[in-house]
Design a protein that fits this description.
Belongs to the Nth/MutY family. There is one protein chain. By secondary structure, this protein is α+β, with helices and mostly antiparallel strands. It has 2 domains: about 210 residues, Orthogonal Bundle (Endonuclease III, domain 1), CATH 1.10.340; about 120 residues, Nucleoside Triphosphate Pyrophosphohydrolase (Alpha-Beta Complex), CATH 3.90.79.10. The protein has 14 helices and 9 strands.
Length: about 350
Amino acid sequence: MNFSTKLINWYTVNKRDLPWRSTNNPYYIWLSEIILQQTQVVQGTPYYHAFTSQFPTVFDLANANEEDVLKLWQGLGYYSRARNLHWSAKYIVNELDGVFPDTYKDILKLKGVGDYTASAIASICFNEVTAVVDGNVYRALSRIFGIETPINSTPGQKEFKALAQQLIDKQQPAIFNQAIMEFGARQCKPKNPDCSVCPFKTSCLALKENKIAVLPVKLKKTKVTKKYFNFIVIISKNEKTILEQRIGSGIWQNLYQFPLIETEKPSTYNNIKSKIENLDVLADMNFDVHLYNDTDIIHKLSHQHLYTKFWIVSVDECIENGIDISNIKDYPVPILIGNFIDKFNF
């Protein structure tokens, strides 16, 4: 029995009933794949339902306001995915007359779409014979075939793509691709997989050589940097606060946050109070400051850890240019800010 037959037989018995598996609509498949980048199925499924409900067609998504898209995305992180999704929807509608591209090569032109996502959409929706390679596939292939080339290196990416392309079932590329992703997610799990029930247990080199725990191989990541964020939560006499939109190309682009004071190290009360006094919005106003959280809230991103404090500033006067506190949940904010808003309960 060859590789694809074993794999597809396993998939037939073990596949999960997931909402995007009941359609080959490329718009829905694309939505699911973008949502599931950097996101597990359990967390991503409610977002899939929310997006397909609020934006049932690519035209609905293209015509949406970016803030509405970001608000619906709130909590998933990696917000560039949402911005790219929105940009590409507008591209499909305005440049392609609303017709989703139907080849790997053309799908790859969509913003935020790489080899894996283009391969998934092209195979599942248009039966193109192009193999997917994601984290699950890297793990399964590296173990079964005993490959020690780092998966996050250029040679590794080429080697695994070529192997996956060699193995793909040319008659059933859609089923094969879904099967190998499911196999990596459910059977060949990162830690403590049950190899006794694996269909490849007699041929898996990692099992034979006791290398399950060390494969796949990854090059060490770049050093994570620490940043110290102090968010200034202003509450005025007329129940207004200040939210600022982040601009530029850094983290949380176009999302909203409370005024931010970033420092090189943990700040003292006096140090922050003196910086707050220099904020233009509080010029010549009387206010009181108190620290909301004595212990830093640590928010971990892929390349940096944010050590965060929230400082509550109560103002005795009215702020005319603020937003009504009652409307604060209408704004798309990073999950770090969203969690604070929920807990503080204004």
